[in-house]
Specification:
Blueprint lengths: L1 H23 L7 H12 L11 H34 L1 H17 L1 H12 L8
Helix pairs in contact: 4-5
């Protein structure tokens, strides 16, 4: 049922975009139907031997995918070892507990707990 609401929101959003952009007539904010039509003509009207991709599509998509994969590889190569090192470090683990307890004490949960304790006349650690 949850996926149905997601689909409804997506369809309503694209439909609203279509109606608004069609009424506005802006060349800088075209409706989705214009974007899809132009994308099909520019990218997917090539020969079947090239999977219907035009030269522009392969010239633009393949380098972009390469850059995305290179960025993912760099982020993984740096992030995974750094995350493992931070997770295994006792100093970081201790600091994480201190930070979490301070956030709890100073955050909304802490304020609500102190307020409730004051209203019941229960002494707290900060009073």
């Amino acid at each position: 049922m949850r996926w149905l609401w997601r689909c409804v929101v997506l369809v309503a959003g694209v439909g609203g975009w279509q109606l608004w952009a069609s009424a506005a007539g802006s060349t800088f904010f075209p409706p989705p139907s214009t974007i899809v039509t132009r994308m099909h003509r520019l990218w997917f009207s090539g020969p079947a031997a090239h999977l219907f991709l035009t030269a522009d599509a392969t010239g633009n998509l393949l380098p972009s995918l390469g850059r995305v994969l290179a960025g993912l590889a760099i982020a993984t190569a740096i992030g995974v070892p750094l995350g493992i090192a931070l997770g295994r470090s006792p100093a970081v683990t201790g600091a994480r507990v201190v930070v979490a307890s301070n956030v709890w004490r100073q955050g909304e949960v802490g304020r609500a707990a102190r307020s409730l304790a004051r209203s019941r006349r229960v002494p707290t650690a900060s009073s």
